[in-house]
Amino acid sequence: MRIFHVLLMTMLLLFAPAAARAQGAFGGGAPHIAAELRAESAAPQPGKDAAIAFSMTPEPGWHGYWQNPGDAGLGMTVKWTLPKGVAIGPLRYPVPETLLISGLMNHVYEGPYGVLAKLTVAPDVPLGTKLPVRVRADWLACTDKVCVPEGADLALDLVAGDGAILPGGRAQFDGWRSHLPRPLGSEASYAIADGRLRLSVPFPAAASARDVHLFALADGLTRYAASQSVTRQGDRLIIETEAGQGLKSDPVQAVLRTGDHVGFLLTARPGAVPAARSVTAQTVLIALGGALLGGLLLNIMPCVFPILGLKAMKLARAGGDERTVRREAWAYSLGIILTCLALGGLLLGLRAAGAAVGWAFQLQDPRIILLLLLLVTAITLNLAGLFELSAFGGGDRLAGKGGATGAFWTGALVAFVATPCTGPFMGAAMGAALVLPIGAALAIFAGLGLGLALPFLALAHIPALRTRLPRPGPWMGRLQKILAIPMALTALGLLWLLGQQRGVPAILLGLCAATALAIGLWWLGRRQLHGRRGGLAVACAALILFAGTAILLPTHAPAAAASEKGLPFDEARLASLRAAGKPVFLYFTADWCLTCKANEAAAIDRDETRAAFEKAGVTVMVGDWTNADPAITRFLEAQGRSGVPLYLWYAPGREARTLPQLLTPATLTALVS
């Protein structure tokens, strides 16, 4: 692959006119990455160093390459034409991003970036001397489907002077410098065994490190596309990945990314590296226990309890038919567990592909909210007696295969609706699942499903519990209609959430779709009263209704209004508040998280809490995760969490304190007392 890159660059340099024509064919002559040569000072001082930079601005969907492009691509090449007494140092690249395409790992920049260099003017150059700097720069611009060789002849006209820097120029160059890798004060060590590279990097335990990735400056250290595992051991980071080919036992250099375009330039020498600590059985068991308890508590959610109540009524009807009861119990549980495994596996797959998503990612898509709105509307009308639906009913036809099938899909729906909100015990468990090996992670997702299914399994397998259920009678019909109320409230909540994500037009579309579905189900119910069918026609119409409404949904979220609850989350603003010694209460929430809303109503949005915070000068900062936000996702991961809620208290001069997931006014007012 690297030989191919060298040959390609040679051909590009030899056939520059053809390359220019290729560029014109794809972009009408305009470069897909605009380049400009800039100087921090237009009057560099003789005997002193100054900074110049290539300001690179890719078009949306295009990217440029780091000095080591990875498995594919080409870095920038430059050829300087300099006046006497001027020298230019090597190019200095910012910390890159990773881009995996078809199994090839690329080291790229998908947004504007600056490549810096040091300009030195000799001490004997007289003041006022004109310093024309010329450079031929060539680079490769790519999308995920096509690459175009590009280049430009750039110029700077400087004059030897006093080195004055305008404020605007300093701010711009300071921004570029903040993305350059900083030299790591201590050397790292590495060892290779059985084709695996283990690298030990000195890094303070208290220092933040997130989205860690190792970028080798030269070929041979790593296989670029191989996954990299990172663990902390005290004041060291242990990175393990697949070793490259042809690496000799020599010092190597690499860039270690520890944040968004933040990283360190390190030198590593062969040496002893402690083995990464293995995941202990105790860690997995603790996380599994949290998932079981969290799943058990999800049964009291208003969108789950009615369906659980219907299943309990089914048991009451079944009487002593143990075989039927247990078959349906395990079908219901299997539907829940497999859905949790599917959601967990999809989450792990998306994260492995580079997406910044966390638990409950499905409720960040308004189309999923619309689908749930229509499903919950149908369940509500079924409970209210508008039409018959055996999958959620419990009549005699549920005996045998039909009953087990209905129970399975009921369990799948329960899991899909109930799992998004991380309540008590679930936060740490879901956070652990995202860093554990895939087998242990899937076990935790299955444990969550088992906890959600436990009440029905207990009723099915413990006859003493079933004997306490009331005997079948007219009360069951009345209870079924009562259970329609929390399901209707759930539908209203989903409609509100749709509006939060896509504004008032989405609410109107969702309301129209739900009304149209209700009319179709009413028609079905009228036909059922006369012994006629029509379920298939209604089901097809409902699918068409969903597809059409989903297409009409607005594609962008409404403009955010100023929050009355606090400042919107901003990591830089948080750092400045802490540096100024201000106390900060930071919490992360989402409109689809019932635990979050309960805490806000019961503790955060209370007069006594607001008064105590105002008196103590506390700044309240809110991270709204209703819609997908990669910055919030990365911050949550840095705190060991994969979902909301999360509550952090920053006392002046102290590190963050994580508060319980269930809050009271006393918990918050005590922070400032």
UniProtKB/TrEMBL annotation:
InterPro entries: DsbD_gamma, DsbDN, Thioredoxin-like_sf, Thioredoxin_domain. Residues 551-673 form the Thioredoxin domain. Its EC number is 1.8.1.8. Gene3D superfamilies: Glutaredoxin (3.40.30.10). GO terms for molecular function: protein-disulfide reductase [NAD(P)H] activity. PROSITE patterns: THIOREDOXIN_2 (PS51352). Pfam families: DsbD_N (PF11412), Thioredoxin_7 (PF13899). The keyword Signal applies. This is Thiol:disulfide interchange protein.
